[in-house]
Amino acid sequence: MASSARFPVKSTQLVATIGGVKTDVVQCNYDDHIMIIVTQIGKMGTLLHARKEEGYGTAPTFNISVLMGKRDEPLMATCARQLIEQMSKTGSSRPLILSLGLSDHSAETLKEVIKVVVENKIW
Amino acid sequence: MDKEADAAPTPDMEPGLEMTQFSDESNDSTFHFQILRLVDQLYVWIGCNSARMGNLFAALPTRWDKTASVAALVGGGAESTGASMARRLSMRTGWSIILSSNLPSNAPVLEAFAEQRLFQELRTLGYVKSASKTSSGAATSLTPV
After folding, report:
1. Which end of chain B, N or C, is less surrounded by CB atoms within 10 Å?
2. What is the pTM (predicted TM-score) of this model?
């Protein structure tokens, strides 16, 4: 019954040290979304939604919105923006749900987050 | 620093999040469940015959109301399913719930089965206390008051 071999959603879980803090990264590959949870506080924290908007003959644009959580940290939106761009460059046009539960929101931390996720990409 | 984590996980570098995945069949449909345990939070995905994420809901217990508050984060139109399930999950666990589900909108039987099966697993995992009066949260919620 619980056969993870034919479970339709691929998911990975890894642990990294970002800014000296233990960080859990969970990624799930759904048919219509990519879900990435990055947490240092053990909670989902801020939920962001990022999607690619394609136009005819124009460069694609990216739309980022905060679904829930902190709206006064522009660097988190930047993080989602960088990740959706990376995803679109490497062949996935699915929207991204990104959950960031970080203990600090410095540029260095978010750069590390992007690095770890891209190095272990699931899309 | 990342290489360390990849190569040999030291004891304190073990994943801190418990992920449970399972599938079950009922009414000619295959259900897939994903449960991720966070600190006082639960991320749950329910898939019915597909690997689509579907609608995304958040349900949070509040101090002011006996029932939990629910918000639709992705999708969640009038016909979407899952909002009430997210509410009940939050009320039964006392935690914040992020629920995504792609259950069909006109199939209460499937919805009831999914909820019953999910609560069964949550009891096994010890995330909810076993209900003393009935084994099925879905069945009780379906009976008219």
Report:
1. C
2. 0.86
